[in-house]
Amino acid sequence: MDYEFKDCSDAGSEYCPCHLADSGECILCSQLSGKVFCDCINWKGVCIYNEYTLNANKANKMRESCQCKIIKKELLEDNLVLFTFKVPHKLAGELVYPGSFIFLRNPKTVEYYDTPISIMEADSELNTLKVAIEKRGIKSKTLFKMEEGENISIKAPYWNGILGLKNVYNAKQGTVVVVCRGIGIAPSIPAIKKLHSNGNRIIVILDRNPFNSEFGEEYLKDYGAELYKCSTLNQGSLSEEFKKLLTNILSTESINLIHCDGPDILIYELLNFIDGGIKFSCCNNAKMCCGEGICGTCSTRYKKHVVKRLCKMQVEPKYIFKGRRLI
Amino acid sequence: MKVIVIGGGWSVCSAAISAAKAGAEVEIFEKTDMLLGLGNVGGIMRNNGRYTASQELINLGAGDLINITDEYSRHKNIDFPGHKHAWLYDVNKIEPVVRRHLKEMGIKLNMISRIIDVEKYKDEIIGIFNSQGEFFKGDAFIETTGSTGPMGNCLRYGNGCSMCILRCPAFGPRVSLSSRAGIADLQGERDEDVYGAFSGSCKLCKESIDENIIKELEEKGVVVLKVPEEDVNLDKLKAKVCQQYALKEFAENIVLLDTGHVKLMTSYYPLEKLRKIKGLESVKYIDPYAGGKGNSIRYLSVAPRTDDMRVKGMNNLFCAGEKSGLFVGHTEAIATGAIAGHNSVRNYLGITTLVLPKTTVVGDLIFYANEKMKSKMGRRNRYTFAGAEYFKRMQELGLYSTDDEEIKRRIEKLNLINVLDQKLI
């Protein structure tokens, strides 16, 4: 019997209670979402209502942007760039977790240009952040123009870049399969690092498409990952090569987690292919603009008038698509 | 047949015992690491009408827990304002004894297992989910999660979390499962449209109190100290759960009882004022830790039920203790738990469930509290064998007795001797 948990990646942090609590839309607390009695089915360890009351019935301050220097720019391909930023120590420390992401913007542009980008590596010793950006649209093209020595605007920290995050933390002393495609290699690195430190053997199925460079592979070597390169998708379906490879791995190994960093179509097809039975986590591909649950960009709609604000709501991957309303 | 009991207090233990006696396989799911819940800071037994109820339970075949509290009493037959022949069990010794007793009966204990939801089909509960998402199937379910807290409720309807023995911030909040099953909870009130009531006592650290007071307390079981006149507050009595202790004497005096800890018979009392009392100059609270500020709030999630302790609208969900009415006290929890546990098995087997006659105090209390729950004024009262409205009724109906033989004869006459000790499966 399955049970759908909801969690909030901000609950208990210095950004909680947030504006959702202030407007009676808190993801976790019944008393801050229209009810007058406690109904803590999704308790996370703090009483958000208590925090809200002790905070004089106000939301805590939202994240603010800070200006950070670009200390390295590596243009790997025409449409792929790596940036390294020098950031305050506190921020680097807050972004070492799997699923961490930031909003980047050229300070000369307005806030609509805030671009959600996953952390590839956060170093709290050197106080640096490394990100990979694929040139796709207006916002990423603007970021591509930024150069070493310039200041970039960073709004952070955000943590909901992986859905099914608790499955990543709970996978210990086993064998995990990480499937990544394209730019998804970047957010997979902090997840692989955590899985490695939890004593797991790591098998990576890597689909470079649309890139040619070997970006990220040095990390995979560091974490002792067994690497298989194959094309994962063929005209919107899982490729035969990928299905064969995965079937072979699943039949010969005892796998305690499949983690997928790729487009929604890959996650969706992969979930259908494995059809439950194995713990699953994946990157969060929701479109985001404010990251605070306010603007509605990340809101996805489901059966029975359910709205999930995926910029901060943690859900199990199988519930990303189940019952989702597309129109 | 499997009976699942959710909660950990006295009513849980009692329900589990009677279901096990009836022949069911029984599992308890409790969110903290200890059984007895508020019973770990309680201790008062057999005062006033609770004596009659205790003897009834023994004769009905549900005396296991009464025998344990009797055996672990620090003081027997003591009187304090408004109360006669109280027995005080040692709150520091009782929990492991009860736990061993349940284990010896083959009852499975799942500790630190917080149940958050139910799966139902029509009016039957199929199983329950814990906070890890694990699913547990059962044939009958008894909800004894109480009506106290959690901290959001203690905040909205009281003075905030006072860090009581329930330890919600540590083990997570209770969830009303009857409400999750779609049956709306009822609430007790302490004043016009003010929901909930404060728990009625605090515990003080023995070592922080003057040694002469402690000496007297350990000898007699009770010490009464005068409150300075400027600090007497009669208004606070109506906020209290335990109306049997909401007497003028309890506002004008500090009543201390020896339950292992020093039980202070007031909901909360500002530390600075408490330290103005002779002998308490260095006193500190140990339950709730913030007893100077407030206490836990109760009666916010009472399930509507029938007199056989079944939750109305559900076929295989039973309830007991505070979950089943505006009851106060361990004896009341043990009594309602025993009936719920027994009836969960009868109901499964298709046998007529047991509704105790109103000529028994247990049956009458269960009936009377249910009747009173229907009216607004009734929801502002609390129901206990130990005092207030119900004890008065017991006396008026001639149900109150401290004569063991007479109480036994009553149960014999009803042909109910050891009815709760019957193996049904």
Describe this structure in words.
By secondary structure, chain A is an alpha+beta fold. Among the domains of chain A are: 65-158, Beta Barrel (Elongation Factor Tu (Ef-tu), domain 3); 162-285, Nucleotide-binding domain of ferredoxin-NADP reductase (FNR) module (Rossmann fold, 3-Layer(aba) Sandwich). Helix content of chain A is 24%, strand content 29%. Chain B is globular and about 60 Å long. The longest helix of chain B is centred in the last third of the chain and has 20 residues, at 330-349. Chain B has 2 domains: 2-72 and 90-196 and 298-421, FAD/NAD(P)-binding domain (3-Layer(bba) Sandwich); 197-287, no CATH class. With 425 residues, chain B is of the alpha+beta class. Chain B has helices at 10-21, 50-60, 64-71, 94-104, 151-157, 168-171, 177-180, 211-220, 248-252, 271-274, 330-349, 361-373, 388-396, 404-413, and strands at 2-6, 25-29, 44-45, 73-80, 83-89, 108-110, 115-121, 124-130, 135-137, 140-143, 189-191, 194-195, 197-198, 202-204, 222-226, 253-258, 262-264, 285-287, 297-298, 317-319. In chain B, the strands form 6 sheets. In chain B, strands 6-2-1-10-20 form a 5-stranded parallel sheet, covered by helices on one side. A 5-stranded antiparallel sheet of chain B has the order 15-16-17-14-18. A 3-stranded antiparallel sheet of chain B has the order 3-5-4. The mean pLDDT of chain B is 95. Helices cover 30% and strands 20% of the residues of chain B. Chain B has 14 helices and 20 strands. Chains A and B meet through α2 of A and β7 and α5 of B.
